[in-house]
Write a structure and sequence with these properties.
Layout (H helix, E strand, L loop, with lengths): L1 H36 L1 E7 L4 E3 L9 E9 L5 E7 L9 E6 L12 H54 L12
Antiparallel strand pairs: 1-3, 1-5, 2-3, 3-4
Helix pairs in contact: 1-2
């Protein structure tokens, strides 16, 4: 069982590394594809900064402002976009836009890609080790139960002789 568990741990490390590496490669490919279709433009704020609730209930509010920009060259866009705190009316900010000129999220950065890859690799490693541990635990319980039954069976035959007590159905002098 120790060898099987050690082999499972080794396979978990290999699988975690392989899945993490695949997630890293796929993340870079996806980020490059997104970057080909997104561009940064200079936008001019046309209103006062406000606040919008964050994406998650526990996250901090995000500073937002209405801004205008041109992309493609002749097409004007006006949207409310997130900006750094302290941005004032008339300031210029950089905005990521898609091919239509609408505001879009920036392509994933190196940190996002790395965090995703490490998470996937670690999750795979932990999952495989947990499943391997569960299999070993179940197998050990089966072995313990079988050993206990065998011991009880053997003890039932030996105990009356060892202790000198009569077995059921045995009379005095029937040794």
């Amino acid at each position: 069982m120790r060898a099987a568990f050690a082999l499972t741990c080794l396979l978990a490390v290999i699988a975690g590394f392989a899945l993490g590496r695949a997630a890293w490669t796929d993340g870079h490919r996806t980020a490059e594809n997104i970057a080909r279709h997104r561009h940064t433009v200079t936008a001019t704020t046309i209103g006062d900064t406000g606040y919008r609730a964050g994406l998650q209930p526990s996250s901090r509010p995000v500073s937002v402002v209405t801004a205008t920009w041109h992309y493609p060259s002749q097409r004007s866009h006006t949207e409310t976009i997130p900006v750094p705190a302290g941005t004032r009316n008339g300031d210029t900010v950089r905005v990521w836009v898609d091919e239509n000129g609408s505001a879009a999220a920036a392509p994933p950065g190196q940190a996002d890609i790395a965090l995703n890859a490490v998470g996937i690799g670690t999750g795979a490693l932990a999952g495989i080790v947990l499943v391997g541990s569960a299999v070993v635990a179940v197998r050990l319980r089966i072995v313990d139960a079988r050993s206990a039954r065998d011991w009880e069976s053997e003890w039932a035959g030996i105990e009356p002789l060892w202790s000198g007590r009569l077995r059921p159905g045995q009379g005095a002098g029937d040794d």
